[in-house]
Structures are given as structure tokens and as C-alpha cells.
Amino acid sequence: MNYTLSQLQIFLKISQTESVTKAAEELHLTQPAVSIQLKNLQAQFNIPLTEVIGRKIYITDFGKEIAEAAENIINQVYAINFKTESYKGQLTGKLKLSVVSTGKYVMPYFLSDFINQNPAVQLQMDVTNKNTVLDSLENNEVDFSLVSIIPNTIATESLDLLQNKLYLVGGKNHQPSKTINTEEIFKDLPLIFREKGSGTRQTMQKYIDFNQIPVIKKMELTSNEAVKQAIIAGMGYSIMPLIGLKNELDNHDLHIIPAKGFPISTNWSLIWLKGKKHSPVAQAYLDFITQEKERIIKKTFDWYEKY
Questions:
Q1: How many other CB atoms are there within 10 angstroms of residue 164's CB atom?
Q2: Is the pLDDT score of 175 beyond 70?
Q3: Distance between CA atoms of residues 66 and 74, nearest Å
Q4: For position 82, which CATH number holds?
Q5: Domain CATH code at residue 168
Q6: Which of 69, 87, 105 is the last residue of a domain?
Q7: Whole-structure pTM over 0.85, yes or no?
Q8: How many domains does the structure of the chain reveal?
Q9: Quick check: helix, strand or coil at residue 29?
Q10: Are residues 219 and 274 in the same domain?
């Protein structure tokens, strides 16, 4: 046998995603490169690792055993690397986070200084929808999660990082000159929703229900970026977190609609399981962010605080 660590890493990712394309995306490789490495690994076994039916790739029973062994090998390699760095006096280990999709505009700024100061720390961050974030937290798969609404179904502890302000947003051709009734707006154009399971969707729905606003037309899209592009194209309005709108507001592609009841405010909060015993890396990060969050907000989000 003459397989490489790279081949094992690629095969493990294929087995986890059940897709060569997704594996390539997550590993930041081209699809042909991933396919070649899979082929080279398969050439060393006379038992199939995968089976392709239609356009879908399946991992065989033998392949699942190889993937499990590969994961163990990779974890041992990481452990060796971490031990090497620890002997040099550096903080080592993994920092694992799950972040709701709009949190991608927030979390990197609360991570960059810590990661730069601790180069031996390996960051693993999954950006996904709220339901998946909470599942990973409840299953104790991550150290921390970033959410805009703290769940009431899981016992957690939390640290507020930044206020989350949501506004009613329209495109360049929809700029009411004065504060107007939201009911009047929604009679003319659709209200664009995020998908079910999104924290933004939950906040929107709570506002609409509380104010008993009749939404005659509505549209549903599955990402913050898709919603922005739909608004820019003149397809409707939406209630959106301010944090992801800086460039579009500066370029006047999007405009905040002066409607009563806005902004809606929640908090971007870092949460973790109540009573969780943090790893040295996780505890170091929590100590860092507790001490540094005000400096980070002042340095990075000064524009945000003006709204």
C-alpha cells in the first residue's frame, strides 16, 4: 500500500459529503483533482470503495470502514502536530464553531486576531441555517455557536457580541420619502422571506404576526445573498439584518424603508452548552473574546453603530 495522507483526507471528505463536487468545494480543490486522487486511492484496493448509481456516488461498506480508519489516522496526525507545537509553548488544538448563515458577516471579525495570535490553532467553522447550527450544538459537535435568537429548547450559556438590527429594505426604485404604513407597502410588492428554519425568517414572522400585517404576496428564497439580489432587481421588499448590507447601502443599490416598528433588534450571541467543560483552546478563545469584544466592535463596526 502506498496511499498518501492527502488521498485519505479527500476520501474522508467524499464519504462525509457523498459528493465529489461538494468535497472539492469544501477542500478548495478542483473537481478533477479530487476525482484523480479518488481514482489513485481506489487503485490500491481490489474491493470497491464507492459505487456510482445514476449521478450519485455511494460509499460501499468496505469504503465506510476505510473512511473510518482514515479519520482515525488524520486525527492522530493532528494530535502529533498539536503536541509538537505545545512543546514550543504555543496554544494548540481545534476551535469548532457553527454559525447561522447571516453570521458570516459577523464571526470572522471576532476570530481573526485570535487566530493570528495563535497560528497552531486549527479553526473549523460551519456556516449553515439555524436548525443545523442548533443540532450541532445540541449534539456537542462544536465548542460554540453564533445565533441571533437564543434557543429555549436547549440549556445554554451565552455571551452577547453585537446588536442585530433588522430593517425593512427596498431597491433603488422603491424609496418612500416619508414614514409609511407597512400594510401599504405589502399591497404593492411581494415580501421576500428567507427559508423556514432561518433566524431572520423567525424574526420576520414574529413581527408580522404581532402587528397583524396582511401579507398578500410573498416569495421565499434560501440565502441572504439571493434575497439581496431579488430586492436589487425590483422583485419586492424584505426585512433584513443590517450587518450584511453595508456595500449595497453605500452603493445605493438598496435603501432602508422608513416604516414604523423598525429596526427590530436582537443580539448576535455566542452560545455553548450549559455546564460544558471547554478545551484549553475554547476557554482561551472565550477569555479573549470577553476581553476584546468592545475593541473589535469599535474597530470594525463603527459604521453599523451609526444606524
A1: 25
A2: no
A3: 12
A4: 1.10.10.10
A5: 3.40.190.10
A6: 87
A7: no
A8: 3
A9: coil
A10: no
